[in-house]
Amino acid sequence: MATSAEQLVGSLADRISAKIVAGEYPPGSRLRQEALAEEFSVSRTPIREALRQLEVKGVIQHRPNQGAIVLAPNARDIRDAYQVRAELEGLAISLAVEWITDEQIERMRRAQKRFAEIVDKLIAARKSNAKTHLKDVPNWVESNDEFHGVVIEASGNRRLKQVIQDLHLGFTRNIMLSALTMDGRRMRENVSQHEAILSAISRHDAIEARKVMTHHILRSGELAVWWLESQGRLGDSGR
User: Fold this and answer.
1) Alpha carbon separation from 87 to 72, 128, 163, 195, 199 (Å, rounded)
2) Residue 215 near residue 87 (C-beta atoms within 8 A)
């Protein structure tokens, strides 16, 4: 179980990542430990550790005589991360098919129902040009996390869970949140992929479950790349 200090560091890393995605800390900007410590009302020690986590995840880079610099995410890093995550979540659902309970499947159904309902509301709001913001409707991210979380929980592999969480970069959730609210077709596609996953795991079909889960994660990665490209916010991929 994580200590309170570890939880604080993880929370700070997530909050700094969210501000990077929101544009408050744009690519190329310098993150000063003293300023961040004052902003988040903490000492420099957890800030330093949070920045180290973000460097490992490729969000920032420490440069000589400059300190921590915000990096522009690039297509290669995103695709590489999602490629690995697709295989790991494919493994997770393969294990889950054998061990998942009826109660866990029901939790997935409820999460999927909420997810689909939220997507319907967002699409309807856009079609009517209503100025509906995410805060005005239930958060689809929570339903998505619950859906995937049940699969990982049912796999029974704690190390696998930790590795998947580490790959799920803090800025990814924010990117997906913004991207899905801008494109109805992609929102519907995400709902259909969840339904295919739920159908396969309900039938305890390990081969099909792994296939549809892997496809879903890879497509999610492409969606993240698409959104960043549309916003002109991708760095040099080197590929």
Assistant:
1) 25, 39, 12, 19, 19
2) no
- In a 13 Å sphere around the CA of 72, the CA atoms on its Cβ side amount to 15
Report the first-to-last Cα separation within the chain, whole angstroms.
39
How many Å is the maximal CA-CA distance in the chain?
58
- How many whole angstroms separate alpha carbon 73 and alpha carbon 94? 31
Contact between 63 and 22 (Cβ < 8 Å): no
Closest CA to 23 of 174, 142, 237: 174
Assess contact for 194 and 216: CB atoms under 8 A. Answer: yes
- pLDDT tens track for 138-158: 467 788 889 999 999 999 999
Q: CB–CB of 96/105 below 8 Å?
A: no
User: Kind and range of the H or E element at 100?
Assistant: none
Render pLDDT for 45-68 as a digit per residue (tens, 0 to 9): 999 999 999 988 778 999 988 889
pTM for this entry = 0.74
Judge contact between 51 and 60, C-beta under 8 A: yes
CB 112 within 8 A of CB 143: yes
Helix (H, G, I), strand (E, B) or coil at 43: coil
